[in-house]
Design brief:
TIM Barrel, 8-stranded parallel β-barrel, about 45% helix, binds 3-methyl-2-oxobutanoic acid, EC 2.1.2.11, Pyrv/PenolPyrv_kinase-like_dom, pantothenate biosynthesis, Pantoate_hydroxy_MeTrfase
């Protein structure tokens, strides 16, 4: 049975942790689809880990649609949440609704995610009212990296913590089915997770969140430009890939690859006539 937004709510009610990974392509989507991970996020982190930008700001609607559609083709069992890119929802409610609709129609998303609290409440309400599930995202929201002056932990003062709580409650009231908490002190995330009836999905927000999300290229040790404190490496694929590439290079140069089993046959008679 495919995971849905209802699964998320049920898991929170039943005290079961939710696991999410980002995903950007068909091949990886099929692998995650066959795993026990509950849902995938086509994050605009693809700006960093796929397209090589220094932040997520340059990611376009067309980028998100292309990668989302690829992931959706490989994900038959998992909820596919897709990020609304920078400036695809901030400008107006109409624009936000139109772009959320494109991610559903062309990107085959099951839900969209957008960053921000009360500043984007009208957009969240309009998208939810159109029957599109919305995931919120609070804390260190990467599209606001310039406003924050860097990737800094958010909500550390009483005022900032209270603002986060008020934003989260407003998002819940507006109808989001869950909220990502990024780079928030663990104890504040615990308070938020208790106050909310919708699940919190943490990234750098501690173990008391209702679920966790990681960028899959981070957790597999593939992306090496920077490694945030909250990332755990479950594998070291960069080293394994480099070893495999070097072995391939050596075998090509030594004439070991391709071997007979990698080649196609032709009748000797045909070959003789060619000489
Ligand atoms: O874009 C992304 O991958 C995200 C996660 C970091 C939550 O938004």
């Amino acid at each position: 049975m495919k995971t849905t937004v209802a699964t998320f709510l049920k898991m929170k009610q039943e005290n079961q942790k939710i696991s999410m990974l980002t995903c950007y392509d068909y091949t990886t989507a099929k692998i995650i689809d066959s795993s026990n991970v509950d849902a995938v996020l086509v994050g605009d982190s693809l700006g960093n880990v796929v397209l090589g930008y220094e932040d997520t700001l340059s990611v376009t609607m067309n980028d998100m649609i292309t990668f989302s559609a690829a992931v959706a083709r490989g994900c038959k069992q998992k909820l596919v949440v897709v990020d609304m890119p920078f400036m695809s929802y901030q400008v107006s409610v109409e624009k936000a609704l139109e772009n959320a609709g494109r991610l559903m129609k062309e990107g085959r998303a099951n839900a969209v995610k957008l960053e921000g609290g009360r500043s984007v409440l009208a957009q969240v309400k309009a998208i939810v009212d159109a029957g599109i599930p919305v995931m919120g995202h609070l804390g260190m929201t990467p599209q606001s990296v310039n406003a924050f002056g860097g990737h800094k932990v958010q909500g550390k003062t009483l005022e900032a913590a209270q603002k986060l709580i008020d934003d989260a409650l407003a998002l819940q009231e507006a109808g989001v089915f869950s909220i990502v908490l990024e780079c928030v002190p663990a104890k504040l995330a615990a308070v938020l997770s208790q106050k909310l009836s919708v699940p919190t999905i943490g990234i750098g927000a501690g173990a008391q969140c209702d679920g966790q999300v990681l960028v899959y290229k981070d957790m597999l040790g593939m992306y090496q430009d920077f490694s945030p404190k909250f990332v755990k490496h479950y594998a070291n694929f960069a080293t394994e890939m480099t070893d495999a590439f070097n072995q391939y290079d050596a075998e090509v140069k030594q004439g070991i690859f391709p071997a007979l089993e990698h080649t196609f046959k032709i009748d000797e008679e045909v070959i003789e006539k060619l000489y």
